[in-house]
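input
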Amino acid sequence: MRRVGDTAIAAVTAVALGTGALLLVGGGDTGSPPQPSAAQARGGAGQAGRAPATPALPPSPPDRVRIPAIGVDAPLTGLGLTPTGSLDVPPAERKNLAGWYEAGTTPGEKGTAIVAGHVDNAEGPAVFFRLGALEKGGTIEVDRRDGGVAVFTVDAVEVYAAEDFPDEKVYGAALRPELRVITCGGGYSRGTGYQGNVVVFAHLTGSR
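output
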């Protein structure tokens, strides 16, 4: 089991997100989603031990996520765990809907907050189709239910094969407010769907 905030997520979460059966199947004839280049990766085990760049915000559920560089402006729904302990996903038919893990850290408070969404569905591209095109230094904004906006700066964008998914790096606890945005990625097979996941690593750099 891996812990996100105060709640454990089974290690099979990465496999479930990467099978294509949960986050996405199909894709139509719109072409493949962009994948991050090696230049967008970062070395080492991440920056979870470093001091926060800006003070953490009090807990507040999020309502919306915006990523201007790739045209994302989507409502957020709460996600729980499946009976097997893996992260649930938003309804596939609602392609402009993302979800956040509501039993864990809320975006902006100290710790690792998790947002996930589909890369496509049977009708074509979905909310995070262009997630792999995001670059270091990009901005992610999260509208919070308390009326504030948490602003995150992208530290890295990486793609992992399902069998090599680094659970601790992605889901592990952080000493500053951090955000992970996850969708399917990597190679694609009609038989098994996407073979891995694209993960964006970001940290809180402002609020308003």
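quick obs: The helical segments are 13-18, 167-171.
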